[in-house]
Amino acid sequence: MNRSRMLAAAAVAAAAVAGALLAPAQADASAGSVHLYKIYYNSPGSDTRTNSSLNAEYVQIANTTSKSASLKGWTLTDASRHTYTFGTYTLGAHKTVAVRTGKGTNTAANRYQGRAAYVWNNDKDTATLRSSKGTKVDTCSYNSTRVAYKMC
Fold first, then answer.
1. Residue 105 CB partners (closer than 8 Å, separation 6+)
2. Which part of the chain is the LTD domain (predicted)?
3. Which residues constitute the domain of residue 59?
4. Are 89 and 77 contained in the same domain?
5. DSSP type of residue 51
6. Same domain, residue pair 10 and 37
7. Cα separations in angstroms, 75 against 50, 57, 82, 119
8. Beta-carbon neighbour count of residue 33 at 10 Å?
9. Are 79 and 126 in contact (CB under 8 A)?
10. Helix or strand run (H / E) with residue 74
11. How does pLDDT run along the chain (152 residues), one tens digit per residue?
């Protein structure tokens, strides 16, 4: 085999190996994840601490996988360490759940922290989502007073 054919064969072999190594990572990325989706940190109107105002402050968590995910024991925390811990709860495939600051009756789409004061600062903060084992799953930070929410 001449030198140019050997180089061409080596390049084809290297590309095949690289493709085989990258394929699982691409498949994992397309499979989706459970992650922070949106933080609505500045509820509309004056901060009056009414329950409706508190519940207009929330964090949405999305499940972009094709399977339901148990969030039992998962935590959502802000930079000041206000922590919400999920009880028995399953987030459906391709669904979102809003974790609201105030009081209410938990549903599949809304969970309530039951607080009487705001959690998310109106100017900057960081949300951290951790699994039941304490592993950091996702973080989302904002630093703005120009808008009331952050897409993560």
1. 112
2. 23-144
3. 32-151
4. yes
5. H
6. no
7. 25, 17, 10, 14
8. 13
9. yes
10. none
11. 443 433 334 443 444 433 333 333 333 334 689 999 999 999 998 899 999 999 999 999 999 999 999 999 999 999 999 999 999 999 999 999 999 999 999 999 999 999 999 999 999 999 999 999 999 999 999 998 888 999 99
